[in-house]
Write a structure and sequence with these properties.
Blueprint (H helix, E strand, L loop, with lengths): L1 H14 L2 H10 L2 H6 L4 H18 L7 H9 L3 H10 L1 H10 L4 H6 L1 H9 L2 H14 L9 H12 L1
Helix pairs in contact: 1-4, 1-11, 2-4, 4-10, 6-7
Length: about 160
């Protein structure tokens, strides 16, 4: 996927202003920023690929706070502690919010979601994918042309 997406994002980057590049950084989730660099290029490449894989291949939808609460509601203390021990990045995020137990996590779920899970960049990319899927001129406009024509105006 990177072989397809990276060249598109390179061309797109040439069209974007510094303000738009900065906005991409601010729209990305903190979790994505921890896993990848803080530059707009890698964040945008990765989020385009992840959005495609999660939403179109797996059939998921962009995560809301309600989805997040439902996802964590069935986690036991043992499962939470095991994941905390296994995932360095998750531990760092929890430490930042003073979360040490599943109860803390549930009590601070809104703050955790807003800070680390909320992904406005994914929401934007999802809308662009939807527009692309529903475009009238499917035979003549490929994904690259569509993104290059539409993305800058949306950011």
């Amino acid at each position: 996927m990177h072989g397809i997406i990276n060249p598109i994002v390179e061309k797109l980057s040439q069209q974007l202003t510094n303000e738009q590049k900065e906005k991409i950084y601010h729209l990305a989730s903190e979790k994505l920023k921890q896993d990848y660099s803080d530059g707009h290029f890698s964040l945008l490449c990765e989020e385009i690929i992840r959005t495609y894989n999660d939403i179109f291949k797996k059939g998921e939808k962009p995560q809301t706070y309600e989805d997040f609460v439902q996802k964590i509601s069935g986690i036991s203390e043992d499962q939470f502690q095991k994941f905390l021990a296994q995932s360095k990045n998750f531990k760092v995020r929890c430490d930042e919010l003073g979360i040490t137990t599943i109860e803390d996590f549930k009590n601070k779920s809104q703050e955790y979601f807003e800070r680390f899970e909320k992904n406005q960049l994914r929401d934007l990319i999802f809308k662009i994918y939807q527009e692309y899927s529903n475009r009238p001129n499917k035979g003549t406009e490929n994904f690259e042309r569509f993104v290059l024509a539409k993305f800058s105006a949306k950011i």
